[in-house]
């Protein structure tokens, strides 16, 4: 394995989208929402163990979650957990990780990935990322992973490929990026998929630490300037105090908006390793195996009748869940919350808003 | 208080009708379903303390519930708990209690009442029952309590009064009974109420122990003959063995069907003390106070929105109940069962049947 290859797992997300299973104190990346015995962050870590040396895996998270990261990834050295004192979106997170890794190894090539995505074909994932890293290590370009769209999904961003500028690398194709597009409406999503020019934006990036640092310096100088003094503090007892100080002043901005949409150096590796960002109950419902009445049921013991197109999840063991006559509902039961809500995402969002408004935030 | 006055509280009912709050091991009479701090049996006992001497209150229950009776009524002497080894409906229960009390006191007048009814005007209840007992003590007749109907209820039995034969006793009116009618359909119930001749059958009886014994001997000799040897065993260590032996052979039959519908000695005291047999979630829903969306809500903490005409009960403390977009549902949550079911009584009955069929009877 190449000692210049590094991985950065972004694990700072807060989790109201799988509420009440996910909480502020227990966001999605620490959940085993699929019931397969490992949390999302554990699955993500395990995948990257096959791509980069164990000591080169870093996790960036909120200071509130550093203990949870340590608990879920006990083999990860604590010095590889980079903690952010404030939430500032992905650009500062990547600026911290990139300057920190460049400080350790100026020749580093890094893959940056969210901690809470689901990958169904792990071998293909390893092959594609490894290929992209080998290629990126020789280029002064910024690479992202684009997923072959299988449906006109309105919950993802899209990347338009320049069909005239592409290159084949060990059987994988990388295209020059033409545009980045935010979540489209249904009609536009269908046009994107039909065109054959668009890929889903996975939020996984591959680049040299030095290349992304240069790009940050050019496109986000107000962010980069804060981190450029990091070399004086990284690896010293003053690192955390330095980070705390600069994060306070750091603007919150995404790497997509701040860099990728502006640079002319963006490329996208086409990938088809079965990627899903299970960001909501609805996306979990659409992705997961369902019973003959199209229900997604994860419970210890059930008696379910004349109930269709619903999500029924109970985290309480030794509890019988009896449901009769529901259609298109979420029934989510945890130790301290029972939520019954239409499956419609806008209704679920109303619940989350109502929790705050009605002073129930202790349950969030 | 008259030392010849006795009370028999019938507390043998099993409870699937408030499932999952009521259980085989915890039937309705031991529940505080109204959330007022006392179980039905405690409320019933407290009412009769104002009518008969404490030592003259007896409870007849299943052997499975005698410990529960003792727990709920710690002041009740254990020898006043009469335990039935098998469920045989009300006639054997009354035969046991009546022969037992006659054995203690041949001049006894007794009131017999279910343990799980709700009375809203306790003072009027005490006055009416006391009046009926005083009157019955001088008569060789069988008295029942009939409630002024306030709606065409189809869940109760009705008693038709003979308007030509009545007597006024201390302001109360007793009518000779013309007919007993089982639960009518809606149209018939409306006819009953409109006629002014019908009262709800409360299942509360007042009579001398000797009078009901004579009536049992006449109308149910196959039951009475089993108990007539009781005098040899009552109050001895052999009492329970005797009861166990005769109950095995005893037919199951109600006192209404076995005696009251046949005798010409039945009279009914008209009563209006606010009586409700809260026998089902539906009757509790109809009886209880509701919020402005017509929901009956008994929970520790809730966030309820766009939900109407529903019953939402949670026995778990420290649990937030979030319900959105339900109409006409039961949501009942206990430590080990969550039930979501349409309020329609037939749907609820299907759940109870399905529990048995699907081998979930450990939750019953």
Proportion in helices of chain A: 25-40%
Largest interface: A-B, 33 and 32 residues
Instruction: Give the integer mean of the pLDDT values of chain A.
Output: 95
- Adjacency order of strands in the biggest sheet of chain A: 6-9-7-8-10
Radius of gyration of chain A: 21 Å
Which structural class best describes the helix and strand composition of chain A? alpha/beta
- Report the biggest beta sheet of chain A as strand number plus sense, adding barrel if it closes: 5 strands, mixed, barrel
Find the count of extended strands of chain A (DSSP E, 2+ residues): 17
Strand content of chain A: 25-35%
Distance between the termini of chain A: 42 Å
The global form of chain A is globular
Say what oligomer this is: homodimer
- Uncertain spans of chain A: none
Order of helices and strands of chain A: EHEHEHEEHEEEHEHHHHEEHEEEEEEH
Count of alpha/pi helices of chain A: 11
Descriptive overview:
The structure is a homodimer of 364-residue chains. A five-stranded mixed beta barrel of chain A has the order 6-9-7-8-10. A four-stranded mixed sheet of chain A has the order 12-14-16-17, covered by helices on one side. The first copy, chain A, has eleven helices and 17 strands. In chain A, helix 3 packs across helix 6 and helix 6 crosses helix 7. Chain A has 364 residues and is an alpha/beta fold. In chain A, a hairpin with a 3-residue loop joins strand 16 and strand 17. Chains A and B meet through strand 13, strand 15, strand 16, strand 17 and helix 11 of A and strand 13, strand 15, strand 17 and helix 11 of B.
């Amino acid at each position: 394995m190449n000692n210049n290859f590094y991985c950065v797992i972004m694990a700072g997300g807060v989790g109201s989208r799988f509420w009440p299973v996910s909480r502020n104190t227990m966001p999605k990346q620490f959940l085993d929402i699929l019931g397969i015995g490992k949390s999302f962050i554990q699955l993500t870590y395990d995948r990257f163990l096959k791509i980069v040396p164990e000591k080169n895996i870093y996790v960036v998270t909120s200071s509130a979650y550093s203990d949870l990261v340590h608990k879920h990834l006990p083999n990860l050295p604590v010095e590889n957990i980079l903690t952010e004192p404030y939430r500032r979106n992905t650009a500062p997170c990547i600026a911290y990780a990139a300057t920190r890794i460049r400080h350790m190894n100026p020749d580093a090539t890094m893959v940056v990935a969210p901690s809470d995505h689901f990958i169904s074909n792990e071998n293909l994932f390893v092959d594609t990322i490894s290929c992209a890293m080998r290629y990126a290590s020789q280029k002064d370009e910024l690479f992202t992973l684009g997923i072959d769209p299988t449906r006109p999904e309105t919950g993802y961003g899209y990347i338009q490929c320049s069909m005239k500028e592409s290159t084949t690398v060990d059987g994988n194709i990388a295209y020059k990026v033409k545009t980045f597009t935010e979540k489209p409406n249904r009609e536009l999503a269908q046009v994107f998929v039909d065109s054959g020019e668009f890929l889903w934006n996975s939020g996984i990036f591959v680049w040299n630490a030095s290349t992304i640092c240069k790009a940050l310096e050019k496109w986000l100088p107000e962010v980069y300037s804060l981190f450029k003094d990091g070399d004086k503090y990284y690896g010293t007892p003053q690192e955390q105090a330095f980070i705390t100080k600069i994060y306070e002043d750091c603007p919150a901005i995404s790497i997509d908006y701040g860099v990728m949409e502006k640079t002319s150096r963006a490329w996208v590796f086409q990938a088809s390793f079965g990627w899903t960002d299970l960001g909501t109950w609805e996306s979990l419902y659409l992705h997961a195996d369902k019973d003959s009445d199209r229900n997604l049921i994860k419970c210890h013991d059930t008696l379910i009748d004349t109930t269709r197109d619903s999500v029924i999840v109970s985290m309480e063991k030794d509890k019988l869940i009896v449901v009769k006559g529901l259609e298109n509902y979420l029934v989510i039961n945890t130790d301290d919350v029972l939520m019954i809500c239409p499956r419609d995402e806008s209704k679920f969002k109303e619940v989350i808003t109502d929790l705050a408004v009605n002073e129930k935030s202790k349950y969030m």
